[in-house]
Amino acid sequence: MPNWWDKPAPVVIPEGYAEFAEQFRILQDVMTAAAPDADQTRTASQLVAELIDVLAQSATDEWSQLSGRLPVPGRGQTLVPAFHIETETETESRGTVRFGRQFLGGNGAVHGGAIPLFFDDAFGRFANTHDRTLARTANLHVDYRNVTPIDTDLAVIVRFDREEGRKRYLTGEIWNGECLCVEASGLFVVLKPGAA
Ligand SMILES: CCCCCCCCCCCCCCCC(=O)SCCNC(=O)CCNC(=O)[C@H](O)C(C)(C)COP(=O)(O)OP(=O)(O)OC[C@H]1O[C@@H](n2cnc3c(N)ncnc32)[C@H](O)[C@@H]1OP(=O)(O)O
After folding, report:
1. Is the ipTM of this complex over 0.90?
2. Which of 81, 125, 169, 195 could link 191 by a cystine bridge, Cβ 3.0 to 4.6 Å?
3. Where does the Thioesterase domain start and stop, copy by copy (predicted)?
4. Is 67 touching ligand 1 by the criterion CB < 6 Å?
C-alpha cells in the first residue's frame, strides 16, 4: 500500500468535476439555509439518494479519490473552507476565505470549530509544500479576537515562521477589513523515516 512517502500518482480530473465539487459546497450551504416543507423534503431526499447511488458506483481508495487533490482552491475537499491564495512566497501566503452558511455557528458568526479546521488545512498545505519533507500537525492554537462573519470575503495571512530541527512553526491571521478576527499558530513535526 502506498504511503505519504510515495509521490502520489498524477490525478486525471474529468471535465466538469471541479465545478461539481463547487456545486457540492453550494449544496451544503443551501441545505443549511433551507426550511423545506414535507414535499420539498421528500423531493430533496430522493435526489440526494440518487446522487449517493451515482457516486457510490465509482468508490475507490484514498490514493485514487479526487476529493482533496484538485489543483483548485480548496482542492475539492468540500469539508474545508477554501483558501483562495493570491500571493505566495516560501514563507508567506496571502489570500481570502469566505465561510459559507454551512459554517454558521450562531448569530452570523462562523462556528468556532470551522476556524481550526481551516488553519489545519492551510498550515498543513504550507508546511508540506515548497519541496519540504512531510510533516504532521502536532498542535494548533487559535485565538478568537473578534467574531468572524459568515458570507464575507475575509483576508488571510499564513506564515512559515521558523524551523527548528524537525519542528516547523506556522502562524496565521484572518482579517475582516481592518478588524482582526483570528490569530492562530501551529506546530508541525517532520515525520520520522518510515512513519506514515
Ligand atoms: C499530512 C501530510 C500531507 C501531505 C500532502 C500535502 C498537500 C495536501 C495538503 C493537505 C492539507 C491537510 C494537512 C492536515 C495535516 C494534519 O491534520 S495531520 C493529522 C493531525 N495530526 C496527527 O494525526 C499527528 C498525530 N501525532 C503524531 O503522529 C506524532 O505525535 C507526531 C506529531 C508526528 C510527533 O511524533 P514524533 O515524530 O515521535 O515526535 P517526537 O520525536 O516525540 O518529538 C519531536 C519534537 O517535537 C516536539 N513535539 C511533538 N509533539 C508535540 C506537541 N504536541 N506539542 C509540542 N511539541 C511537540 C517534541 O517535544 C520534540 O521536540 P525536541 O525534543 O526535538 O525539541
Report:
1. yes
2. 195
3. 107-179
4. no
80-190 in CATH: which number? 3.10.129.10
Non-local (6+) Cβ contacts of 95 within 8 A are 83, 84, 85, 86, 87, 155, 156
| pLDDT tens per residue across span 73-95 | 999 999 999 999 999 999 999 99
Domain(s) of CATH 3.10.129.10: residues in the chain? 80-190
pTM of the model: 0.94
| pLDDT tens digits, one per residue of 8-26 | 666 789 999 999 999 999 9
Q: Which three cell numbers stand for residue 20?
A: 461539481
**Any atom of ligand 1 within 6 Å of the Cβ of 186:** no
Q: How far is the CA of 181 from the centre of ligand 1 (A)?
A: 26
The alpha carbon of 192 and the centre of ligand 1 are apart by a number of angstroms equal to 10
Residues 155-168: pLDDT tens digits?
A: 999 999 999 999 99
Cβ density class 50-88: b for 16+ within 10 Å, e for less = eeeeeeeeeeeeeeeebebbbeebbbbebebbbbebeee
> What's the CA dihedral at 57, 63, 64, 70 to 10 degrees?
120
